[in-house]
Amino acid sequence: MDDPEFLAEQQYLDDDENFKYDLVSDDLEGDDDGANDDIVDAFTTIKYNNEQYEATQPLSHSITEVRPSVVDDFIRNFLIKAGMKTTLDTFNTEWYELQSKGKLPNELSVIVPDLYLRNEDLDQQARQLREQVEKAAEVAHRAQATWDKFRRERDFHRMHHKRVVQEKEKLINDIKRLRNHMRSYEPAIEELKFRHQAAIKEKMLIRLERDRLKTRVKALEEQIALIQNPPVPDDTPPKRKATRSVRKHAVFPADDPGSNPFLNMEFDTTAFETFQVKKSYKGHLNSISCAAFHPKKPIFATGSDDQTWRLWNLADCEVVMAGEGHTSWLSSLHFHPHGSHLSTSSGDGTVKIWEFANGKNTHTFTDHTQAVWGSEFHPAGDFVASCSMDHTVRIWDLIAGKCKQTLRGHVDSVNACCWQPFTANVCSASGDKTVSVWDGRTGLCVQTLYGHSNSVNHLKINNRGDIIISADADGVVKVWDIRMVAELATIDAGKYPINQLTMDRGGHRALAASDDGTIKVLDLDNFTQVSELRGHEGAVQCVATASNDAFFISGSSDATFRIWGK
């Protein structure tokens, strides 16, 4: 075994103040020389031993070696570690004094046994290990607390999960049971719906029959009064009455600018921006695409993409009558000026005329080759104008039951049409970005208005017949003067398309049904947007005002209609 190796610590004392100096007498000079010789011999011997030791070591041995610790170094290290500086100074003084005089015994120059150093190292390692064990115990204690907390949370969440699973299974079973229960009611509901529709039709027919009976009773009362009070006979021979000729076709009224009663009327501005939703009702199974008010009674009609139209009572939103017959979505509907008929147009390319007295369809016009976007009665009631995706506008003669005139000139779909009040002129809005005015007698285009930068979706003319408003797919509304054939103003109503327009009686306010789900209120006097009304969840497809401007109705893609009022 190799000899044990020790680490030697050498301390340099630079502070002269803490070191004590003793006087040396003159008679010790001889001894000093002897001591100096002994020191030189000791250093020479140590150096020789080191050289011999290094020569015997292999070349691969490390250059740095640990010098074994002697007794005095061991004591110095002990005193330094204990902080006994005064004792250390005294020890060094006496040790070096005795060593210089050669009075130290040989047994004090031996190397300190390795056992003490190993014990010291082991004590230090033991202290470090105790500290590590204490830290590990603390960490383990905290980990144990955290683990206990997580275990409790796990148990809680597991119990909660089991409870949720049980509730979910229970709800699923309840839903299945309710579905089965509802399936048993579906036939009864369908039967009740059918009975309800039949009862509504019977109710309407009974009302019409009641009105006819009232008229007949009144006529009978007049006849009875004549029988009871016969008139005085007149001896003059009766004049021969001319035979009444039955018309076979309708005739446009003569052009008379003064025949329009609205020319001499003034109406107050209707503050549509103050209107609020009075009623909201889901009236159809699909999007509501068109609506119109009855000209004389508190009744309005709605048409839908579910291929049906319905008449509603304004007071309680009760269905008065329903009509089926179209094979595709309805695009528009319009009441006869007398309120006795209703015209509807559809995506199936047909225009139908419905009579309320008999509750049936009286005319079906099929000359259009593509979907029909709009239809409207003439103010006289003998004609209906319709516009189609086949680029044409057709005028239908209700007396003859056929097409009287076809207006051709647009190069794209004709999206809307309306009559100029109390004239034979028809206005049309097209996908070719133009608005045209046609003469219904000759079938020629009288005026064409340019200015829109996108497809014109709808147009409306005021009751005086001199102002047209039109809206396009860019959300732009333009105001036109028919007499000047010029654009008066442009109103920006948002970045979404405008689907339909309407105006109040005086032509001061307009309503625009927008694709963003709002209704824009436009001021036609100042050419600005006043407000926007919100309420629908889907795009607003149609809007219509009552004849007295007290209400207006809006229909939306959410299959609901809303009645607005003050």
Brief characterization of the structure:
Residues 228-253 are annotated as: Disordered. With 566 residues, the chain is of the alpha+beta class.
What does it look like?
With 566 residues, this protein is α+β, with helices and mostly antiparallel strands. It folds into three domains: 26-112, no CATH class; 123-226; 276-565, YVTN repeat-like/Quinoprotein amine dehydrogenase (Methylamine Dehydrogenase, Chain H, 7 Propeller). It is 30% helix and 30% strand. It has helices spanning 29-56, 71-82, 85-101, 114-228; strands at 276-282, 288-293, 299-304, 308-313, 319-324, 330-335, 341-346, 351-355, 360-365, 372-377, 383-388, 392-397, 402-408, 414-419, 425-430, 434-439, 444-450, 456-461, 467-472, 476-481, 486-492, 498-503, 509-514, 518-523, 528-534, 540-545, 551-556, 560-565. The strands form seven sheets. It has a four-stranded antiparallel sheet with strand order 1-28-27-26, with no helix packed on it. The protein is elongated, with a radius of gyration of 56 Å. The N and C termini lie far apart (114 Å). Residues 1-32, 58-66 and 240-245 have low confidence and may be disordered. Residues 239-250 have a biased composition (Basic residues). Residues 112-223 form a coiled coil. This is Sperm-associated antigen 16 protein. Pfam families: WD40 (PF00400).
